[in-house]
Amino acid sequence: MGDPRRGRGRRGEQLARDHLARRGYDIIQTNFHSRYGEIDIIARKGDIVAFVEVKARRDRSFGEPFESVSPRKQSQIRRMARAWLMVNAHDPAYGDCCFRFDVISIMLDKAGGAIELDHMEDAFR
Asked: How far is Cα of residue 31 from the mean position of the Cα atoms in its chain?
């Protein structure tokens, strides 16, 4: 039997991708790995590229999902974004883009459906 957190994370990421697509974002990449870790979603809308961290939980016993994106985690996400930019720096598709960091917090019911979904754009600077 697998880790239930892993399944919850995958379900949260799928709900986040669906949310972004409904809002007009194109998903560039999911689960980008670098030596610093993984970026859940990289999405683009117009001239904005968003590096998206997804946090899905079933209850608030450890606080709101977005609260787990600590300053240390933010620093790690910035390093991962720099690694992605190094790989994609020469792609002219991103030449005029602005980059930002978003957090999508999702509260799930027992069946894996979204009870609440909050998209915090430009969540940290």
From this structure: 9
pLDDT band at 68 (very low <50, low <70, confident <90, very high): confident
pLDDT in tens, 37-50: 999 999 999 999 99
3-state helix, strand, coil in the chain (%, to 5): 35, 35, 30
b or e along 65-78 (b: 16 or more beta carbons within 10 Å of the residue's beta carbon)?
Answer: beeebeeeebebbe
Q: Which tokens sit at 91?
A: 């792609």
Tokens matching residue 39: 């970026």
Q: Specify the amino acid at residue 58.
A: R
In 3-state terms, what secondary structure has residue 24?
coil
